[in-house]
Amino acid sequence: MINLIREMFSYSFVVNAFLAGLLLAVSASIYSPIVVLKRMEFIGDGTAHAVFAGLAVAFFFGLDYKPVAILTAVVFGLLISFLSQKEASENTAVGILLPVFMAFGMVVVSLIKGYTPDIMSYLFGNILLISTEDIYYLIFITFVTILIYLLMRREILYFLADEKTAKFFEVPVKFVRTILLVGLALTVVSVVKISGVILVGAFLVIPGTISKVYAKKFEHLVFYSLFVNILSMFLGIILSYLFDLPPGPVVVLILFGMYILSFLWKNK
Amino acid sequence: MERNKILEVIDVSYSKNDVEILKNINFEVLSGEFVGIIGPNGAGKTTLAKIIVGEIRDYIGKVYVKGRIGYVPQIKDINRDMPVLVKEFASMGLYGKKGFLRFFTRQDWKEVEKKLELVGILSLKDRPVSKLSGGELQRLMLARALLYEPDILLLDEPEAGVDQMGKARFYELIDTMRENENLTVILISHDIGMVFQKCEKIMCLNKTLHCQAPRERISPEDLRKIFSEDFDIWIRGQKHYEREHEH
Fold it and tell me: Between chains, do A160 and B78 touch, taking CB under 8 Å as contact?
């Protein structure tokens, strides 16, 4: 076992994968309970599809994909925040905007001459292709996410517990919502490379769903999600290395297995 | 004690999607008064509450409030899925005083506990809100509103989802608050019996105000206008009702 671990960590791509997994686990553990409690489970998928449109534009114009992807995700987050304040739920807003961004991306992809493997790889993602630059981005996003959580813990708590009445008690609900949606969008940009556009939702929905069942207070939500995320990431990467499987889908399947186990445990 | 005007609603009308919900509402509330607003479902009671607390702003007319309003909404609006402790939930009432990104001190938590004790749920402070009964949740909402140090308490159907015992305890608490802190209370309710028992002034709302008078001057006729039903039994008791309806 020790030899296996030593062998795995002798490869820099595996080290990067673990680091990325750990950082992502931290960010997602803060956003996942929010996504689940605010019933905006499709926000992750929506943002990921929006990012796809951004990637297509970046490849079409030969631009660096990262800033364009970030910009697209932030614009998407702000649009959702705006629409969801105008009597549409977040999920409805995502339902409206997701196909629009995806369709736009597909049109742009069709205009790119030749094969577009780079864009297609984002549909499925691969944690083993994480670069050092990606790690820096993840460190930045994780740092920002932790900062938001530590500074705005109380505001987020009130926003989640009773958004409607919170504003009467002067909680800046609109601001909290916007900050969370933008932060979430930035996290999704970092998740896409690992999980791909298609699987992104699992990382943002399953940990929060599991932790909600057991949590008695807000901090529990985050810590239980963190535990679920770290365990699934590490197990997933090790198993995919051992059996030569795609890591993103393996992690998602482990997450689902944990969800089933937690459900059975709760109802035993 | 001299009573000042604490709330004034002048010619307020409100429509949504071309449907008129409130029309030419005029009334005033004096400090220390206990006012009841009654009306059938869809009469516009909650809309009026939302206009008073400032949630709805695109209405016609004017609303003047002198002081702070402690809003106690219906308990069905609370997200019971959210794992939050009773004391944390109540602390929302202190947020306005603390401000954005400010941490709570030990003194703040003492204040929260004081209010939880006042409403009789201090022993539940570390319990998740999801485990509370309807009556306990209603008292928690009251504690939260009181932490806001309100001049007016606005209660939106506090009886909804609360059992008889819980309801009785809740109104006892409101009586105590009024005696001790000269609070002005506006009670929006379906519970006509309770409104007639507790409130000094009653307003009958069904899109517009059909009556507005001290309790003793509200007649069964006034109620019939808004409910299209006989409510004499509620106002003057069973015996009176039977006597009047013998012939």
Answer: no
